[in-house]
Fold these 4 entries.
Entry 1:
Amino acid sequence: MAVRNIRIEGDPILNKIAKEIKAVTPRIKELAEDMLDTMYEANGVGLAAPQVGILRRLVVIDVGDENGPYVMLNPTIVESDGEQTGDEGCLSVPGKAGTVTRPNHVIAKYYDLDMNECTVEGNELLARAICHELDHLDGHLYTEIVEGELKDTIAPEDEEEED
Ligand code: NI
């Protein structure tokens, strides 16, 4: 298990476009494992490689559904419809949340770690997570499309306990 350092908003790598993965090397497999470890350690539901400083098109998602966790290489959204408006957060924007409107249903294609082409269909939280994580691969954070102000998610008494 290796937990990697999560880059925080303001780090320029979060605004860069990640590169396609052409082959699953041992380094890519290790990156995927470390990203899962890092996501679970931080209690997140998704993480994209640029958030750990690697500009490759790889995301991991676990929204607690029976098919997860998803390890998605070179993912693309091929269909999206509907609309949902709700709170969203990001491990690169700690302690904050904001209202974001996303499609309520998406179909995405990606490659797994054996380079098999896979399709995932997501509704609600999974659709939101897929959209959010894929945005990271193109250098976008949810804070660019947030509706209204960001809210604090950490109560002042919780902050004191962290010391
Ligand atoms: Ni994020």
Entry 2:
Amino acid sequence: MARIYNFSAGPSTLPLPVLEQVQADIVDYKGAGLSLIEASHRGPHYSEVHEAAGAALRKLLGLPDNYHVMWLQGGATLQFAMIPMNLLQGGKQADYTNTGSWAKKAIADAKIFGDINVVWDGKDENFATLPAAADVDARADAVYLHLTSNETIGGVQWQEWPDVPVPIVCDMSSDFLSRKLPLEKFGLIYAGAQKNLGPAGMAVVIIRDDLLEQCPDDLPAYLAYKTHAPKDSLYNTPPVFPIWVSRLVLDYLNENGGLDWVAGLAEERSGLVYGMIEKHGGFYRCPVAAHCRSKMNVVWRLPTEELEQQFIAEAKAAGMDGLKGHRSVGGCRASIYNAMPVEGAKALADFMDEFARKHS
Ligand code: PMP
């Protein structure tokens, strides 16, 4: 078996030991005579997995008891709407930062439900930078301040968190579980699973009690946090396969050193790629301001689009796929999530070095 280095932005690479465990258990789940994805979501086999997934996530994040964990379908995209639908009914206020493609979508949905104020907008700077955390404020009567911790397409990532008088609601889809968090600042954290957590088909939503209490009861059942949180995400059939794999990923992270471990690896991997961009500064160019360069999604340009195409094609032939930038912005992008081996980043950096030497 030859596995490539997969730099895809999501779905993306998963830890090999996790895939191997799934492979071993997929047909006959631990001697049960059936697959876990054939088993009742209320039966003993799945119940154990469901409980363990929640416990492992709580342990990894150090999540206090006043936060609920929900595993929901509809991806992070549904949360763009579900958050304001649950927290802003009746035209309540919320503040948003417009930091790129994903924040923009969150803002558009929020405007359907609430009075939305954009407190910082990166549009005029082509979304290539973020404000200093200390320069971000929120209205004291806003229900929350919304941030996108890491813009997967633009490659900007908050390195520090604003001090604001309201809870932060954060889309962490593309850097969830990549570093420790000052949890007390966050009222709600959400993330699509398919980057650092597991397979596509699920979002994890973590909500603090005081925000949950503010949610209305009269929403369509699936769209109400008050449906899912008290029922531990078992109101209806949960996304059993993504939850199963996520449990294995979470166990793997907990067993190997937790968030400090992955944060160190992210530093190392991203350092290798940014280092190579700097080394060949006349050839490669990272458009993102140095203080907010993402440790998960590194974006860069080459002198021409032809060279970019050639770079991507040759990298692919060398066993490194998924390096094409998002279709909306072009260029190159390496998504180097938790499960990307450091050797993968090293292989990419070596390839970049050689390519630049040949073509500069
Ligand atoms: N937010 C961010 C930061 C993302 O990267 C993505 C997906 N790439 C989404 C939201 C949307 O997630 P989903 O596809 O799970 O709806």
Entry 3:
Amino acid sequence: MNKDLEQFERRIIVTGGAGFIGSNLLLLLVPKYPDYLLVNVDCLTYAANLSNLRPIENHPNYVFEHVNICDRSGLKECFDKYAVDAVIHLAAESHVDRSILGPADFIDTNIMGTFNLLELARARMEQKASFRFHHISTDEVFGSLGETGYFTEETPYRPSSPYSASKAAGDHLVGSYHKTYGLNTVTTNCSNNYGPYQFPEKLIPLIIRNAREGLPLPVYGDGKNIRDWLYVEDHCRALDLVFHEGTAGKTYNIGGSNEIENVVLVRRICRLMDERLGGGKREELIEFVKDRPGHDRRYAIDASLIQRELGWKPQHSFDAGLKATVAWYLDNEDWLDNCISGKYLKYYEEMYSNR
Ligand code: NAD
Ligand code: DAU
């Protein structure tokens, strides 16, 4: 290994570091761990934005590699070049509605891309037996809850969408590499994140953008589907803890204990925007539209394992987090406007025009 690399205590590939959660994670880890080299491996899909990483792009312990995780030889070059000893794997096709329009990219990235990373990690175990592999996943693998109950680490997998099925396949592959090859894995299954840098295909930034423009606010079905929201910084703090202290082979659920019906959430965003911007009641823009096929009714996480074992708990209340999020998008209108490309408008038309 060359001297420049030897100066780093750890050399970690973070996949998907230019996306929403990946950017927030790198903005936390790069300044916090100057002795780690953090290599952001991202192929820059529509959901990526390297400008998120401007505050850290010149840090000596950060580097960006424009690589697709489906390209095994490109990935191998990265593993070799940086003598990597850990992976934090976030890269994914992440949007449920897009997986319904066209599942192929989800199968490629979320299953085959994960498989490529696991194979390279397995090969690196020859040099580094304790090679750490942290797989970032979702509560959607569990399917839908009824009116009561919570997802625990023991809840059986019942994915509903091509997105969640592809994530479930990735989770199972990761589990199998621990059991079969002894790879030092951890998997985290988190609920819905919100906060800065989220692409406006997801509910919260989409509603903020539409409400700002005076466009209809599309709420699927009867609006009573429930999601359990977690501020992205709290998720990133949990990832930091699990990466360092999580038990090999285990999975950890992460959630904010903030269950809310979609329509109630949309009304709250409207009220926050009314307070900031004035100009009438934005909730009058709400339109109930045709439901998402296979739409899971309710998600709710039991996060007691990570709380008990690793001492994690969320620091942001939903009220404060939502207020900060609305403020962030309104204060960063250029960021939001840059997402609204021709491609976005085409997607929006395809997704919403016949609902
Ligand atoms: P995102 O869509 O905002 O970002 C995904 C990133 O992965 C982008 O930068 C994209 O360019 C990159 N990427 C996609 N395909 C790639 C490929 N083939 N090769 C290399 N890079 C590729 O996603 P997100 O919301 O930040 O989610 C990150 C991870 O967290 C995903 O694995 C997702 O399943 C999981 N997750 C997300 C949430 C949520 O609420 N957003 C909740 C739980 C778990
Ligand atoms: O639960 C974790 C998951 O959360 C992650 O694994 C996914 O990557 C992430 O995209 C998110 O999935 P959801 O499908 O829950 O998020 P989304 O923002 O697309 O939708 C949230 C809820 O709002 C869901 O019940 C569908 C509804 N919805 C969404 C959109 C985009 C609407 O009613 N109208 C909309 O326009």
Entry 4:
Amino acid sequence: MHEKCGVVGVSLEDRDAARPLYYSLYALQHRGQESAGIVTHDGFQQHSHVEMGLVGDAFEQSDLEQLNGSQGIGHVRYPTAGSVNACCAQPFSVSFKSGSLGLSHNGNLVNADEVGDQLADLGHAFTSDGDTEVIAHDLARNLLEEDLVRAVKRTMSRIHGSYSLTIMHDDTVLGVRDPEGNRPLCIGELEDGYVLASESAAIDTLDGELIRDVRPGELVVLHADGTGYDTYQLVQPENTAHCFFEHVYFARPDSVIDEQLVYEVRRDLGRALWDESGIDSDVVMPVPDSGRAFASGYAEAANEDADADGVEFAEGLMKNRYVGRTFIMPTQDERERAVRLKLNPIKSTVEGKTVTLIDDSIVRGTTSNQLVELLYDAGAEEVHVRIGAPPIVAPCYMGIDMASREELIAADQSVADIRDEIGADSLAYLSIDAIAGALSKSKADLCLGCVTGEYPYDIDGEAKDREVDRPAIGTAASADD
Ligand code: 5GP
Ligand code: MG
């Protein structure tokens, strides 16, 4: 099982890349807390440091000093309950006959087993069961026969699924976004070089300028002297499959993804939530931090609505910032305790009031369940829950480790059942149409698998929401196609 992660790549004129990579990984820490790593190249050889833990813990001053070279890539990896696995930490690096490769991957292939089996038959030995290693070996093999661009194109014709990659082939840094653009990837300009990153917030951190998103199916090659880059549209997708959940939950609100500022999208979703299911109450309060932008948009729309009573936007829940993301907790009991540890109501904003509580999503229901009870205990008269995403009814296979069907509270329950289970006076979710509207995308260009149960990819045992023509694996696609 692979995870959503953060990837970066940097090519500078003559400064060491290690520090900018380190800072940009810090900016992407929310995308993965299990491990962090950097691989650089100094023109002669690769240097690598990959360790378990947060970015701040994974690197010492001396680690950064030994990462010589003006070119490099980095990675932060997302944790999955129970599989703290040092073998899968990235960047993945290999040396082979025609050079060295480093690879950082965000996403999840759906045909890694098939491609891996084929490569194994051809004599490739794998050290992990990860799909990133499959990509690395396939690319290494193609690089024995083709130039860089053709080799990447050939690999892209064989792998299927979700991948935003930063790759280092010797001292050349590349960025690749899968033809469906499932995960984000963007390119930015620094004073003395160029940077590729999962999110533009990482470029901001380096005082760089966002140039644009890497396009679905595009390869970006950063010049090894840090002075420019070339791009190749290697696959022309008919439809994209952007993950809407990046905009709803996962990405930083200060990032621009596919030309939209995430914060504004979330505020628009909050406004749509008012339009679809607004209810008068004394206060509107967000579940911090994920509900904040939604609640501010919702309250704004409520206060603009001439037919409504007007509402106070209040920070009614205090967050203990030192508690990690609750998902990391392996058991349900620990997850429940963690919510209580993490959030505490501010009594004066709650007592004797009718409250609308707003969050981005309900996954297992743990957070809403605990918070509704907490607000009643603090003296709330009514608690209405509004959610800035549709019910999550099915798992994510594309890199967001969202739990299995049995764990998803909405997998087999109606909204009314869920309302009763979490004990709220009312509950409403946002519609899928509102999501497509806020993202200015057709539903056919989004991956909506977790809210429809139909996926834009071939996944064993799951329904598909579109026809996608793909070459059968094993047909050695030519780069000139
Ligand atoms: P629940 O408590 O219902 O299981 O999860 C909902 C809460 O988890 C929401 O506050 C939401 O912000 C957060 N959340 C949603 N998706 C994810 C995810 O993929 N990872 C983590 N860590 N949190 C998530
Ligand atoms: Mg949350």
